[in-house]
Write a structure and sequence with these properties.
The protein has helices spanning 27-37, 59-73, 93-104, 119-133, 145-151, 154-165, 188-194, 206-220, 230-241, 245-262, 269-289, 293-308, 316-329, 337-349, 375-382, 388-393; strands spanning 49-53, 80-86, 136-142, 170-177, 197-201, 314-315, 353-359, 365-371. It is an alpha/beta fold. The strands form 2 sheets. A 5-stranded parallel β-sheet has the order 2-3-4-1-5, with helices on both faces. It has a 3-stranded antiparallel β-sheet with strand order 6-8-7. The structure holds a DNA duplex (22 and 22 nucleotides).
Length: 402
DNA sequence: CGTCCACTGGAATCAAGGGTCT
DNA sequence: AGACCCTTGATTCCAGTGGACG
Protein backbone atom coordinates (compact mmCIF):
# COMPACT_ATOMS: atom_id res chain seq x y z
CA UNK A 1 0.00 0.00 0.00
CA UNK A 2 1.24 3.44 -0.91
CA UNK A 3 1.82 6.01 1.71
CA UNK A 4 -0.43 9.04 1.91
CA UNK A 5 1.45 12.05 0.73
CA UNK A 6 1.06 15.60 1.91
CA UNK A 7 0.57 18.17 -0.82
CA UNK A 8 -1.59 20.71 0.89
CA UNK A 9 0.31 22.97 3.18
CA UNK A 10 -2.57 25.03 4.39
CA UNK A 11 -6.02 23.70 3.81
CA UNK A 12 -7.97 26.69 5.08
CA UNK A 13 -7.07 28.77 2.03
CA UNK A 14 -8.92 26.31 -0.14
CA UNK A 15 -11.97 26.40 2.00
CA UNK A 16 -14.96 28.37 0.85
CA UNK A 17 -15.40 30.08 4.22
CA UNK A 18 -12.07 31.82 3.83
CA UNK A 19 -12.45 35.44 2.85
CA UNK A 20 -9.35 36.76 1.14
CA UNK A 21 -8.08 40.28 1.74
CA UNK A 22 -8.69 41.05 -1.85
CA UNK A 23 -11.45 39.86 -4.08
CA UNK A 24 -10.11 39.87 -7.60
CA UNK A 25 -12.46 40.72 -10.46
CA UNK A 26 -15.07 42.10 -8.11
CA UNK A 27 -13.69 45.59 -7.79
CA UNK A 28 -16.58 47.18 -9.65
CA UNK A 29 -19.23 45.45 -7.61
CA UNK A 30 -17.45 46.36 -4.40
CA UNK A 31 -17.12 50.04 -5.17
CA UNK A 32 -20.67 50.03 -6.36
CA UNK A 33 -22.03 48.68 -3.13
CA UNK A 34 -19.67 50.68 -0.98
CA UNK A 35 -20.79 53.88 -2.65
CA UNK A 36 -24.37 53.11 -1.90
CA UNK A 37 -23.64 52.12 1.64
CA UNK A 38 -21.18 54.73 2.88
CA UNK A 39 -23.79 57.29 3.96
CA UNK A 40 -24.42 54.94 6.87
CA UNK A 41 -21.14 56.00 8.39
CA UNK A 42 -22.73 59.39 8.92
CA UNK A 43 -25.96 57.93 10.15
CA UNK A 44 -27.74 58.48 6.88
CA UNK A 45 -29.89 55.72 5.56
CA UNK A 46 -28.51 54.09 2.45
CA UNK A 47 -30.83 52.72 -0.21
CA UNK A 48 -31.88 49.13 -0.06
CA UNK A 49 -29.90 46.98 -2.42
CA UNK A 50 -30.71 43.87 -4.32
CA UNK A 51 -27.66 41.80 -5.16
CA UNK A 52 -28.23 39.40 -8.01
CA UNK A 53 -25.87 36.76 -9.29
CA UNK A 54 -25.51 33.04 -9.64
CA UNK A 55 -24.00 30.83 -6.98
CA UNK A 56 -20.28 31.15 -6.59
CA UNK A 57 -20.00 34.59 -8.14
CA UNK A 58 -18.68 36.05 -4.93
CA UNK A 59 -21.81 37.72 -3.59
CA UNK A 60 -21.49 36.46 -0.08
CA UNK A 61 -17.74 36.94 -0.01
CA UNK A 62 -18.05 40.53 -1.19
CA UNK A 63 -20.70 41.32 1.38
CA UNK A 64 -18.70 39.77 4.20
CA UNK A 65 -15.72 41.70 3.04
CA UNK A 66 -17.66 44.94 2.99
CA UNK A 67 -19.02 44.20 6.43
CA UNK A 68 -15.50 43.80 7.69
CA UNK A 69 -14.33 47.01 6.07
CA UNK A 70 -17.29 48.85 7.52
CA UNK A 71 -16.32 47.69 10.96
CA UNK A 72 -12.81 48.99 10.40
CA UNK A 73 -14.18 52.44 9.64
CA UNK A 74 -16.53 52.40 12.58
CA UNK A 75 -15.01 50.00 15.05
CA UNK A 76 -17.30 50.80 17.93
CA UNK A 77 -20.35 50.50 15.72
CA UNK A 78 -21.28 53.96 16.80
CA UNK A 79 -23.03 54.84 13.58
CA UNK A 80 -23.88 51.64 11.88
CA UNK A 81 -24.08 47.91 12.41
CA UNK A 82 -23.85 45.24 9.81
CA UNK A 83 -26.01 42.17 10.29
CA UNK A 84 -25.97 39.00 8.26
CA UNK A 85 -28.76 36.45 8.03
CA UNK A 86 -28.64 33.39 5.86
CA UNK A 87 -32.18 32.71 4.78
CA UNK A 88 -31.42 29.28 3.54
CA UNK A 89 -30.90 28.17 7.11
CA UNK A 90 -33.67 30.21 8.70
CA UNK A 91 -36.44 30.49 6.19
CA UNK A 92 -39.51 31.38 8.21
CA UNK A 93 -40.58 34.87 9.32
CA UNK A 94 -40.14 34.17 12.99
CA UNK A 95 -36.71 32.74 12.41
CA UNK A 96 -35.56 35.78 10.45
CA UNK A 97 -36.76 38.23 13.07
CA UNK A 98 -35.33 36.07 15.83
CA UNK A 99 -32.01 35.98 14.08
CA UNK A 100 -31.90 39.71 13.51
CA UNK A 101 -32.96 40.47 17.05
CA UNK A 102 -30.27 38.33 18.56
CA UNK A 103 -27.61 40.19 16.69
CA UNK A 104 -28.99 43.48 17.92
CA UNK A 105 -29.86 42.63 21.50
CA UNK A 106 -26.64 42.16 23.37
CA UNK A 107 -28.23 41.74 26.79
CA UNK A 108 -28.61 38.04 27.41
CA UNK A 109 -31.51 38.40 29.78
CA UNK A 110 -33.66 40.19 27.26
CA UNK A 111 -33.16 37.98 24.26
CA UNK A 112 -36.15 36.91 22.31
CA UNK A 113 -37.01 33.21 22.72
CA UNK A 114 -36.64 31.15 19.60
CA UNK A 115 -40.31 30.28 19.59
CA UNK A 116 -43.44 31.07 21.52
CA UNK A 117 -43.94 34.77 21.02
CA UNK A 118 -46.33 36.31 18.57
CA UNK A 119 -44.75 37.88 15.53
CA UNK A 120 -46.17 41.25 16.51
CA UNK A 121 -44.44 41.12 19.82
CA UNK A 122 -41.12 40.16 18.30
CA UNK A 123 -41.52 42.92 15.76
CA UNK A 124 -42.28 45.55 18.40
CA UNK A 125 -39.39 44.48 20.57
CA UNK A 126 -36.98 44.69 17.67
CA UNK A 127 -38.21 48.12 16.71
CA UNK A 128 -37.71 49.36 20.25
CA UNK A 129 -34.18 48.08 20.38
CA UNK A 130 -33.30 49.46 16.99
CA UNK A 131 -34.73 52.83 17.89
CA UNK A 132 -32.87 52.96 21.18
CA UNK A 133 -29.54 52.41 19.45
CA UNK A 134 -30.12 55.40 17.21
CA UNK A 135 -27.96 54.36 14.31
CA UNK A 136 -28.12 52.65 10.95
CA UNK A 137 -28.56 48.90 10.69
CA UNK A 138 -27.57 47.26 7.48
CA UNK A 139 -29.20 43.88 7.26
CA UNK A 140 -27.98 41.39 4.71
CA UNK A 141 -30.50 38.74 3.81
CA UNK A 142 -28.57 36.11 1.95
CA UNK A 143 -30.48 33.67 -0.24
CA UNK A 144 -33.48 35.91 0.13
CA UNK A 145 -35.47 34.02 -2.48
CA UNK A 146 -35.69 31.06 -0.16
CA UNK A 147 -37.99 32.94 2.18
CA UNK A 148 -40.24 34.06 -0.59
CA UNK A 149 -40.56 30.49 -1.76
CA UNK A 150 -41.56 29.14 1.62
CA UNK A 151 -43.24 31.96 3.44
CA UNK A 152 -44.31 34.62 0.98
CA UNK A 153 -43.32 38.25 1.11
CA UNK A 154 -45.04 39.41 4.31
CA UNK A 155 -41.74 39.50 6.08
CA UNK A 156 -40.34 41.90 3.49
CA UNK A 157 -43.28 44.14 4.07
CA UNK A 158 -42.52 44.04 7.77
CA UNK A 159 -38.92 44.96 7.24
CA UNK A 160 -39.31 47.58 4.57
CA UNK A 161 -41.98 49.48 6.46
CA UNK A 162 -39.98 49.51 9.64
CA UNK A 163 -38.36 52.79 8.66
CA UNK A 164 -41.68 54.56 8.70
CA UNK A 165 -41.98 53.89 12.40
CA UNK A 166 -38.35 54.56 13.23
CA UNK A 167 -37.07 58.10 13.78
CA UNK A 168 -33.60 58.04 15.34
CA UNK A 169 -32.54 54.80 13.69
CA UNK A 170 -33.00 53.42 10.23
CA UNK A 171 -32.53 50.06 8.66
CA UNK A 172 -31.32 49.28 5.22
CA UNK A 173 -31.70 45.94 3.56
CA UNK A 174 -29.36 44.17 1.23
CA UNK A 175 -31.14 41.25 -0.34
CA UNK A 176 -29.00 38.62 -1.99
CA UNK A 177 -30.40 36.21 -4.53
CA UNK A 178 -29.19 33.88 -7.21
CA UNK A 179 -32.57 33.78 -8.80
CA UNK A 180 -32.73 36.39 -11.54
CA UNK A 181 -36.49 36.20 -11.65
CA UNK A 182 -36.79 36.90 -7.95
CA UNK A 183 -37.84 40.52 -8.39
CA UNK A 184 -40.70 39.62 -10.67
CA UNK A 185 -42.15 37.33 -8.04
CA UNK A 186 -42.53 40.14 -5.52
CA UNK A 187 -45.60 42.25 -5.14
CA UNK A 188 -45.14 45.68 -6.76
CA UNK A 189 -44.79 47.81 -3.66
CA UNK A 190 -42.19 45.54 -2.13
CA UNK A 191 -40.44 45.25 -5.44
CA UNK A 192 -39.78 48.96 -5.60
CA UNK A 193 -38.70 49.20 -2.00
CA UNK A 194 -36.37 46.25 -1.95
CA UNK A 195 -34.85 46.99 -5.31
CA UNK A 196 -34.00 50.65 -4.91
CA UNK A 197 -30.56 49.77 -6.16
CA UNK A 198 -29.43 46.70 -7.99
CA UNK A 199 -26.01 45.20 -8.29
CA UNK A 200 -25.47 42.31 -10.65
CA UNK A 201 -22.64 39.84 -10.28
CA UNK A 202 -21.77 38.20 -13.59
CA UNK A 203 -20.26 34.71 -13.51
CA UNK A 204 -16.49 34.46 -13.65
CA UNK A 205 -14.98 33.53 -16.96
CA UNK A 206 -12.25 31.00 -17.36
CA UNK A 207 -9.39 33.46 -17.09
CA UNK A 208 -10.73 35.08 -13.98
CA UNK A 209 -11.24 31.74 -12.32
CA UNK A 210 -7.73 30.78 -13.22
CA UNK A 211 -6.27 33.83 -11.57
CA UNK A 212 -8.34 33.28 -8.48
CA UNK A 213 -7.24 29.68 -8.25
CA UNK A 214 -3.62 30.57 -8.81
CA UNK A 215 -3.68 33.02 -5.98
CA UNK A 216 -5.17 30.53 -3.59
CA UNK A 217 -2.97 27.71 -4.75
CA UNK A 218 0.13 29.69 -3.92
CA UNK A 219 -1.07 30.04 -0.37
CA UNK A 220 -2.37 26.54 0.05
CA UNK A 221 0.09 24.21 -1.62
CA UNK A 222 3.68 23.21 -1.22
CA UNK A 223 5.55 24.52 -4.21
CA UNK A 224 5.89 22.33 -7.23
CA UNK A 225 3.16 19.84 -6.45
CA UNK A 226 0.80 21.00 -9.15
CA UNK A 227 1.31 19.81 -12.66
CA UNK A 228 1.36 22.38 -15.41
CA UNK A 229 -2.12 22.93 -16.76
CA UNK A 230 -4.02 21.60 -13.78
CA UNK A 231 -5.19 24.97 -12.63
CA UNK A 232 -6.35 26.10 -16.01
CA UNK A 233 -8.17 22.82 -16.41
CA UNK A 234 -10.00 23.38 -13.13
CA UNK A 235 -10.84 26.89 -14.22
CA UNK A 236 -11.95 25.80 -17.66
CA UNK A 237 -14.21 23.03 -16.45
CA UNK A 238 -15.84 25.26 -13.86
CA UNK A 239 -16.26 28.17 -16.21
CA UNK A 240 -17.94 25.98 -18.74
CA UNK A 241 -20.18 24.52 -16.10
CA UNK A 242 -21.34 27.54 -14.14
CA UNK A 243 -18.61 30.08 -13.51
CA UNK A 244 -18.86 29.10 -9.89
CA UNK A 245 -15.69 30.00 -8.04
CA UNK A 246 -16.65 27.95 -5.05
CA UNK A 247 -16.97 24.87 -7.17
CA UNK A 248 -13.69 25.58 -8.92
CA UNK A 249 -11.99 25.85 -5.59
CA UNK A 250 -13.57 22.65 -4.37
CA UNK A 251 -12.46 20.96 -7.53
CA UNK A 252 -8.88 21.91 -6.91
CA UNK A 253 -9.05 20.82 -3.30
CA UNK A 254 -10.66 17.48 -4.06
CA UNK A 255 -8.12 16.85 -6.81
CA UNK A 256 -5.37 17.41 -4.30
CA UNK A 257 -7.03 15.16 -1.79
CA UNK A 258 -7.34 12.39 -4.31
CA UNK A 259 -3.69 12.74 -5.16
CA UNK A 260 -2.80 12.62 -1.49
CA UNK A 261 -4.92 9.57 -0.95
CA UNK A 262 -3.16 7.79 -3.80
CA UNK A 263 0.18 8.74 -2.40
CA UNK A 264 1.07 10.67 -5.54
CA UNK A 265 3.48 13.51 -5.30
CA UNK A 266 2.06 15.53 -8.16
CA UNK A 267 -1.46 16.71 -8.79
CA UNK A 268 -2.31 15.86 -12.38
CA UNK A 269 -5.10 16.50 -14.84
CA UNK A 270 -6.29 12.95 -14.30
CA UNK A 271 -6.85 13.74 -10.66
CA UNK A 272 -8.92 16.72 -11.65
CA UNK A 273 -11.12 14.64 -13.87
CA UNK A 274 -11.80 12.02 -11.26
CA UNK A 275 -12.39 14.76 -8.72
CA UNK A 276 -15.02 16.23 -11.01
CA UNK A 277 -16.88 12.95 -11.24
CA UNK A 278 -16.65 12.31 -7.55
CA UNK A 279 -18.04 15.73 -6.73
CA UNK A 280 -20.97 15.41 -9.07
CA UNK A 281 -21.84 12.08 -7.56
CA UNK A 282 -21.39 13.11 -3.96
CA UNK A 283 -23.47 16.23 -4.30
CA UNK A 284 -26.53 14.44 -5.63
CA UNK A 285 -26.21 11.49 -3.31
CA UNK A 286 -25.90 13.75 -0.31
CA UNK A 287 -29.11 15.50 -1.24
CA UNK A 288 -30.88 12.19 -1.65
CA UNK A 289 -29.52 10.72 1.55
CA UNK A 290 -30.89 13.57 3.60
CA UNK A 291 -34.30 13.55 1.99
CA UNK A 292 -37.29 12.96 4.31
CA UNK A 293 -38.63 9.41 4.23
CA UNK A 294 -41.76 10.27 2.30
CA UNK A 295 -39.75 12.02 -0.39
CA UNK A 296 -37.49 9.02 -0.68
CA UNK A 297 -40.49 6.81 -1.12
CA UNK A 298 -41.90 9.03 -3.83
CA UNK A 299 -38.54 9.07 -5.55
CA UNK A 300 -38.39 5.29 -5.31
CA UNK A 301 -41.86 5.18 -6.83
CA UNK A 302 -40.72 7.28 -9.76
CA UNK A 303 -37.83 4.92 -10.36
CA UNK A 304 -39.94 1.80 -10.06
CA UNK A 305 -42.61 3.26 -12.29
CA UNK A 306 -39.95 3.80 -14.92
CA UNK A 307 -38.70 0.27 -14.63
CA UNK A 308 -42.21 -1.07 -14.95
CA UNK A 309 -43.06 0.76 -18.13
CA UNK A 310 -40.02 0.86 -20.30
CA UNK A 311 -39.97 3.51 -23.02
CA UNK A 312 -43.41 4.77 -22.16
CA UNK A 313 -43.72 8.12 -20.45
CA UNK A 314 -44.41 7.97 -16.77
CA UNK A 315 -47.07 10.32 -15.44
CA UNK A 316 -48.23 11.40 -12.01
CA UNK A 317 -50.90 8.73 -11.83
CA UNK A 318 -48.39 5.96 -12.49
CA UNK A 319 -46.11 7.19 -9.77
CA UNK A 320 -48.95 7.42 -7.31
CA UNK A 321 -50.18 3.90 -7.85
CA UNK A 322 -46.67 2.52 -7.53
CA UNK A 323 -46.29 4.63 -4.44
CA UNK A 324 -49.35 3.09 -2.89
CA UNK A 325 -47.99 -0.38 -3.58
CA UNK A 326 -44.72 0.47 -1.95
CA UNK A 327 -46.51 1.83 1.08
CA UNK A 328 -48.45 -1.38 1.29
CA UNK A 329 -45.35 -3.50 1.15
CA UNK A 330 -43.83 -1.38 3.86
CA UNK A 331 -46.93 -1.38 6.02
CA UNK A 332 -47.18 2.38 6.05
CA UNK A 333 -50.20 4.54 5.35
CA UNK A 334 -49.86 6.26 1.99
CA UNK A 335 -50.19 10.01 1.75
CA UNK A 336 -52.95 11.54 -0.30
CA UNK A 337 -52.43 12.23 -3.96
CA UNK A 338 -52.12 15.98 -3.62
CA UNK A 339 -49.29 15.66 -1.14
CA UNK A 340 -47.47 13.20 -3.35
CA UNK A 341 -47.70 15.49 -6.35
CA UNK A 342 -46.30 18.26 -4.19
CA UNK A 343 -43.41 16.03 -3.21
CA UNK A 344 -42.86 15.31 -6.88
CA UNK A 345 -42.60 19.03 -7.48
CA UNK A 346 -40.03 19.30 -4.73
CA UNK A 347 -37.94 16.51 -6.20
CA UNK A 348 -38.19 18.31 -9.51
CA UNK A 349 -36.90 21.52 -8.00
CA UNK A 350 -33.99 19.66 -6.47
CA UNK A 351 -33.18 18.45 -9.95
CA UNK A 352 -33.36 14.80 -9.02
CA UNK A 353 -36.24 14.16 -11.34
CA UNK A 354 -37.61 16.12 -14.22
CA UNK A 355 -41.34 16.75 -14.28
CA UNK A 356 -42.99 18.89 -16.91
CA UNK A 357 -46.70 19.35 -17.45
CA UNK A 358 -47.92 18.01 -20.69
CA UNK A 359 -51.31 17.54 -22.16
CA UNK A 360 -52.26 14.14 -23.53
CA UNK A 361 -55.46 15.48 -25.04
CA UNK A 362 -58.33 13.20 -24.25
CA UNK A 363 -56.07 11.41 -21.83
CA UNK A 364 -55.82 14.40 -19.61
CA UNK A 365 -53.24 16.90 -18.63
CA UNK A 366 -50.58 15.86 -16.20
CA UNK A 367 -46.86 15.76 -15.61
CA UNK A 368 -44.48 13.61 -17.50
CA UNK A 369 -41.77 12.45 -15.17
CA UNK A 370 -38.18 11.50 -15.94
CA UNK A 371 -35.38 10.45 -13.66
CA UNK A 372 -32.50 12.85 -13.72
CA UNK A 373 -29.73 10.83 -12.09
CA UNK A 374 -27.40 8.15 -13.36
CA UNK A 375 -27.43 4.40 -12.75
CA UNK A 376 -25.03 4.51 -9.84
CA UNK A 377 -27.20 6.93 -8.02
CA UNK A 378 -30.30 4.87 -8.66
CA UNK A 379 -28.53 1.92 -7.08
CA UNK A 380 -27.60 4.16 -4.23
CA UNK A 381 -31.23 5.06 -3.63
CA UNK A 382 -32.32 1.46 -3.73
CA UNK A 383 -29.78 0.59 -1.10
CA UNK A 384 -31.18 3.12 1.35
CA UNK A 385 -31.96 1.47 4.65
CA UNK A 386 -35.46 2.83 4.48
CA UNK A 387 -36.22 0.22 1.85
CA UNK A 388 -34.83 -2.67 3.86
CA UNK A 389 -38.30 -4.19 4.41
CA UNK A 390 -38.91 -4.00 0.68
CA UNK A 391 -35.93 -6.20 -0.06
CA UNK A 392 -37.00 -8.85 2.43
CA UNK A 393 -40.44 -8.76 1.02
CA UNK A 394 -39.63 -9.17 -2.63
CA UNK A 395 -37.21 -11.97 -3.51
CA UNK A 396 -39.11 -14.95 -4.81
CA UNK A 397 -36.27 -17.44 -4.84
CA UNK A 398 -35.99 -18.08 -1.17
CA UNK A 399 -39.43 -18.84 0.19
CA UNK A 400 -39.20 -22.47 1.09
CA UNK A 401 -39.08 -23.00 4.80
CA UNK A 402 -42.52 -21.89 5.85
C1' DC B 1 -66.22 23.24 -32.61
C1' DG B 2 -67.25 21.39 -28.19
C1' DT B 3 -66.19 17.76 -24.93
C1' DC B 4 -63.79 15.78 -21.46
C1' DC B 5 -59.78 13.56 -19.32
C1' DA B 6 -56.33 13.54 -15.40
C1' DC B 7 -54.59 16.11 -13.26
C1' DT B 8 -52.46 21.05 -11.87
C1' DG B 9 -52.09 24.70 -8.77
C1' DG B 10 -53.91 27.63 -5.30
C1' DA B 11 -56.24 28.33 -0.87
C1' DA B 12 -58.28 27.12 3.29
C1' DT B 13 -57.98 24.15 7.12
C1' DC B 14 -56.37 20.74 10.62
C1' DA B 15 -53.30 18.40 13.84
C1' DA B 16 -49.19 17.96 16.21
C1' DG B 17 -45.28 19.77 18.32
C1' DG B 18 -42.28 23.42 19.50
C1' DG B 19 -42.71 27.10 22.88
C1' DT B 20 -44.20 31.60 26.12
C1' DC B 21 -47.23 34.22 29.26
C1' DT B 22 -50.14 35.01 33.19
C1' DA C 1 -53.14 24.96 34.15
C1' DG C 2 -55.08 27.09 30.34
C1' DA C 3 -54.75 30.50 26.74
C1' DC C 4 -51.98 31.75 22.89
C1' DC C 5 -48.55 31.80 19.25
C1' DC C 6 -45.71 29.99 15.19
C1' DT C 7 -44.19 26.26 12.01
C1' DT C 8 -44.58 22.13 9.44
C1' DG C 9 -46.71 18.45 7.16
C1' DA C 10 -50.70 16.80 5.54
C1' DT C 11 -55.62 16.93 3.98
C1' DT C 12 -59.70 18.81 1.72
C1' DC C 13 -61.85 21.45 -1.73
C1' DC C 14 -62.15 23.35 -6.16
C1' DA C 15 -61.84 26.15 -10.13
C1' DG C 16 -59.00 25.75 -14.16
C1' DT C 17 -56.77 23.67 -18.55
C1' DG C 18 -54.13 21.92 -23.26
C1' DG C 19 -55.22 19.43 -26.75
C1' DA C 20 -56.74 14.70 -28.95
C1' DC C 21 -60.88 12.94 -30.26
C1' DG C 22 -65.51 12.72 -32.05
Amino acid sequence: MKKRSVLIKNRSFLHTTYIPDQLPHRENEITNIVEIITPSLNKNKPSNILVIGKTGTGKTAVLNYIGRELKKEDSTEENCSFLYVNCEIVDNPYGILFNISNQIIKDHNNKIPFTGWSLDKVYDTIINYIESESKIFIIVLDEIDKILQKSGDDIFYFLTTMNEVLTDSKISIIGVTNNTKFIELLSPKIKSRLGEEKVVFPPYDSEQLESILKRRAELAFESGVIEEGVISLCAGMSAKDSGDARKALDLLRVSAEIAERNGDSLITEAHVRSAWNEMEKDAVQEVIRTLPDQSKMVLMSCITAHENKKNVSVITGDVYSVYKDICNSMYTVPLKEKRVTDLISELDMLGIIHARVKSFGRNGRTREIDINVNKDTIEFIKKDELFEPLRKHKPAKQTTLL
